[in-house]
Design the sequence.
């Protein structure tokens, strides 16, 4: 994938609100100056935010701070490749310079600061805001400004969230070196379901294995092995949710050659075994 700076909000607009549909999502790992709220209405896949790799599904609600690299990736990862989403994008000063520095809006200011790590909101907040966010698409400009401020207020009051990326990730990020890492990310996403050696991936970056290890960990805060495990576990979660394959086959299809190792790593990452994860997911979906 290519990490690039995207320009979104034109000078004549305060912000952008849009509903989007894609046959699949393989959008590049990207960053932009705007803050972004994304509500996923349809689709499942992998979400990469900063140095975080997690799975996403319908009804996911996220917020990303300015210049935080991120992408949602679905191509080839599940049967539900198609994406439908509502996206809100705005600059910090869309209501005027220093607007959120005023005392009544300090909670929103804090929300904007927290979003520098990426935020995924959990069940209670999603339930309260899904209808409000989807309704924005059909409101007029004045109504949208008022309702967006209300949405930001409600998000700022929520304690029902998880931070995604590591603190300080943006501080260490070097966009000038993005082309090399773009190729590495792209290669890993295309090939993580099979054996990948350090030498093989290092060659994509034209680095020696030892130099690549230092380079990769500085960028992702993970070793290549840790990054691959997170990616493979996320993919395995999607296969478990589909409930049409055995654990052994899911292990192989996710890039693990040993079922015992798969079970051990899955529990280390998710806090439960693959079978327990599948059981809890199916019960939750049935309810």
Sequence:
């Amino acid at each position: 994938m290519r990490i690039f700076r995207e320009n979104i909000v034109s000078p004549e607009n305060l912000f952008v609100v849009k509903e989007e549909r894609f046959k699949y999502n393989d959008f590049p790992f990207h960053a932009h100056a705007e803050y972004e709220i994304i509500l996923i209405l349809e689709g499942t896949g992998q979400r990469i935010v900063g140095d975080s790799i997690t799975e996403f599904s319908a009804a996911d609600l996220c917020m990303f701070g300015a210049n935080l690299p991120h992408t949602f990736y679905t191509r080839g990862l599940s049967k539900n490749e198609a994406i439908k989403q509502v996206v809100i994008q705005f600059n910090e000063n869309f209501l005027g310079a220093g607007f959120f520095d005023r005392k009544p809006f300090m909670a929103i200011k804090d929300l904007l600061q927290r979003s520098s790590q990426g935020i995924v909101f959990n069940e209670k907040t999603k339930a309260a805001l899904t209808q409000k966010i989807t309704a924005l698409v059909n409101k007029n400009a004045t109504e949208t400004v008022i309702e967006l401020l209300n949405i930001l207020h409600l998000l700022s009051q929520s304690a029902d969230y998880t931070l995604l990326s590591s603190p300080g990730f943006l501080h260490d990020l070097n966009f000038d070196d993005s082309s090399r890492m773009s190729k590495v990310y792209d290669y890993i996403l295309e090939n993580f379901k099979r054996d990948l050696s350090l030498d093989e991936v290092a060659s994509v970056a034209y680095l020696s294995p030892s130099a690549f290890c230092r380079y990769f960990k500085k960028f992702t805060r993970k070793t290549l092995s840790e990054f691959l495990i997170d990616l493979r576990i996320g993919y395995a979660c999607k296969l478990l949710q589909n409930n049409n394959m055995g654990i052994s086959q899911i292990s192989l299809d996710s890039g693990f050659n040993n079922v015992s190792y798969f079970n051990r790593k899955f529990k280390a990452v998710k806090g439960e075994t693959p079978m327990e994860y599948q059981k809890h997911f199916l019960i939750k979906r049935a309810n």
Residues 4-163 form a domain with the Jelly Rolls fold (CATH 2.60.120.280).
